[in-house]
Amino acid sequence: MRFGVLGPLAVWTDTGQEVAVPGAKVRALLADLLVHHGRAVPAETLIEDLWEGTPPAQATGALQSKVAQLRRSLEDAEPGARALVETAPHGYRLRAEPSRVDAAAFGALVADARYEEALALWRGPAFAEYAEVPFARAAAERLEQQRVTAFEGLAERRFARGEHRALADELPALLDAHPLRERLHAVRIRALYRDGRQAEALEAYREIRNRLAEELGMDPGPELAALQQAVLRQDPALAAPVSPSSHLPVPLNALVGRDEEVAGIRALLRGHRLVTLTGSAGVGKTRLALEVAAAEENAWLVELAGVDAVGARENAAVLEERIATTLGVRGTLAQALRDRRLLLVLDTVEHLATPAARLVVALLGSAPGLRILATGRQPLDVPGERLWSVPALGCDAAARLFRERVSDSVPGIATDADADAEEIAAVCRRLDGLPLAIELAAARVRTLGLRELAARLDDRFHLLGSGARTLRAAFDWSWDLLDDRERAVLRRVSVCAGGFDLAAAEAVAAGAGVVSGEIAGTVAALADRSLLTPVMDGAGSRRFGLLESVAAYARERLVEAGEAAACARRHARHFTRLAGEADRELRGPAQREWLHRLDVETANLRAALDWALERGDGELALRQCGSLGWYWFLRGRYREAHRSFGRALAVADDLADGARSDALVWRAALEAWERMPSEPAELPDELSPRQLWLLGFARSDSGDLPAAIDLVSGALEHFRRLGDRWGTAAALGVLGSESLRLGKLDVARRQSEEGLALSREVGDRWGESRALRLLGVLAEVDGDYEHADRLHGAGLASAEELQLWPVVVEEISQLGRVAALTRDFGRADALYERALRVARERSFHHGVVHARVGLGASARRQGRLDAAEEQLRQAERAHRADGYRSGLAYVLAELGFVAELRGDAAEARARHEESLALAREADDRRAVALAIEGLAGAASLEGDADQAARLLAEASAIRPLPPAERGDVERIAARVARSRR
């Protein structure tokens, strides 16, 4: 969530949607918290500020009401955002990262001298509607002063870029608003002088001198006085610097976002005589080379794009003649350059790579004062060559370039509003950060508008295709330089999504004109030509990617060649085979490697499944989904899995094979895990052991204990008979959890220990983590919290290593529970908050609810009943919506204890009675005991000591409690004892 005070008070969600904050006092409260951003504001200060010295009766309660309204507004817009308004000792604070508040972001940008980006954040006067309210006045004034400072820095930067004429005309309006800013006056005087208006420059100095004398009784500062003297004597230092590079064309606009590259390439040229800038079409190699060369004393540009490649290959003298003509030399070029010191910029050498390489070697060998800066889409591959791969622009630089070019095309247009920021970022991202594409797109804003432009980028080569420069022409040039085999491979690999490895390239590109053994070399050649991008996948394996624009161009060529359908079919079959191989490896020691591999290939796997579904190939779709089911589960992507199985079943209605059977079982299991409303499951009559286990596992988590035990017990028998160690371990893990719920602790421990040993034997880290978690819970039940902490820590480490996010969240929450039981509430709350954050990031709904329950239980044990109730009620709503009986039984018991601690016997009894009914329905003995203890508390409040004592004894018989969990029981027992005195 983002907050804005550089203009009218505003709040936006992360997706850019504006958040309504209703009520004048609620908005004023938010503004006051933003004034003190990150610092706690005492309640009495907020009351004074909001009611301006005339607080209402029960002012503290009125403030709490406004805080609650603000939290509700934020929460309604973005779940979890209520936590941003944090209760602090004696007050409240807004807990938002500095980058989420435009004023803080503005300050950081100004500190980095990024003035244009900083000023782009402003939407009007700071704290617009509160600028004159006492609590915001100083902050508003401070921000306005910083804004002027940014204007000054920007003016000086524009002056250095040579925009003196524009500044001379623009600055008077700014100075009318800020007439005493000597720094701005200095920029104006310099701009007037450099524009040849010396008399006006001196008059501008007299104006500021007179105003300072009249209003402040002081003279201009020493810098301004020295500037006047320099103007009077026409100091040469005030004149525009003469470019030492008089043989280069003068760019029509400033280079944006390339400061680091310019500095780096200049440094490289100081130590090396041949530097080649490589990069894809449209990345800005020529413009960058010109900027680098502009600082050189004797630099010459030789444009080679127009040199006929065939003629130059046949006769290298054609190339030499072009360079000699540009330099204006006669005779042998090598002799003419022998005693000269110069930088030669050879622009666009890729089509002349062979003759250019020979000539460069010859010239550098004979002319020691010569340096060469070449640009091309591939290296020259000669000794001594240093390469600089020109990257695409980063997000911020690309957006800045877009805005500047839009402003050039449509003077006065505003493209810096927050409403446009995300749209601009999306356009630049889709155009791969290529300066050429961004500049062409910016020019289209004049006729199409930003949103229409963004909507039409799928057809980018027509959209950006008129005038002297076109995106298509840039890519046509690269295409024409390829041989037939290179063209075939490039267009065929364009069916890959999110990159590809050599195995995928061989699977989709081999065919007419290309044999499999040639593909690795061809891919390498395309990478050298900047048409493919080599990347490492994070596990040390090399992959190749295509910029979106390159992929779009290659796909057009694929369609023209009539190969699109065949390549897409080969792609889908390759990735279905890959998924099948992964499914066999995900339950053993290669688990980590294959999880990572499937993560990397997610986009390709989705594209393959979409292709099968679109063409009604139900068999292929079911095979792929069946192979990916366990991967989706391990990654916690239940909704994606359910949706994919459903789509596959819909197009495979007439199939009746094992793949369809698997899909039906998976769908039923996912509906149980996600508590989805579903019709009676359409399941096969005969289930395999793994299908039996999967259904039982899912139903155990959804609270259907008897059915789960029957299914998993049946699966276990089959697994043992077949010698399936993975299946045996998995079944024991489920049965161990159910034994714990039934209070059979010794049985649960034996099953967990055997399951752990088997999981380690087969190398299954998921099974190991599950077993460690259950053993940790058993240690908690025994009251051995140190051992429990070690076990949960080991389970967490194992799950984190494989990024098994559902298990990670569960183990973090379990560690939070251990910390709470040992009364380390600070650590407990931090762990639960971490679990909540990870679960939200991974869209793991149950993990979010589990963490909320933990936070609520921890808050109750600390006596923070309001905070406890807030968290528990959210969990209650989620469990009721999901139909999760065991979870709801526990949450209701916790809410019952909250009511009891408040002295509300009726509410406590109602909560615990519902909890007891649910616990008995789920056959969860521990939950039954907890609800009975709660009913004892309600009876003790009602004065029925005998009933309370009987209930406590009944609960104790069901499950004895370790000392750390006896807090509620001891409190109730003490109340019973007091009532009997």
From TrEMBL:
Keywords for this protein: DNA-binding, Two-component regulatory system
Classification via CDD domains: BTAD (cd15831)
Residue ranges of every copy of the OmpR/PhoB-type domain listed in the record: 1-96
Gene3D superfamilies: P-loop containing nucleotide triphosphate hydrolases, Tetratricopeptide repeat domain, Winged helix-like DNA-binding domain superfamily/Winged helix DNA-binding domain
GO biological-process terms attached to the record: phosphorelay signal transduction system; regulation of DNA-templated transcription
DNA-binding region coordinates: 1-96
GO molecular function, one term: DNA binding
InterPro entries: BTAD (IPR005158), HTH_77 (IPR058852), OmpR/PhoB-type_DNA-bd (IPR001867), P-loop_NTPase (IPR027417), Sig_transdc_resp-reg_C-effctor (IPR016032), TPR-like_helical_dom_sf (IPR011990), TPR_rpt (IPR019734), WH-like_DNA-bd_sf (IPR036388)
Annotated family: Belongs to the AfsR/DnrI/RedD regulatory family.
PANTHER family the record matches: HTH-TYPE TRANSCRIPTIONAL REGULATOR RV0890C-RELATED, REGULATOR-RELATED
Protein's name according to its UniProt entry: AfsR family transcriptional regulator
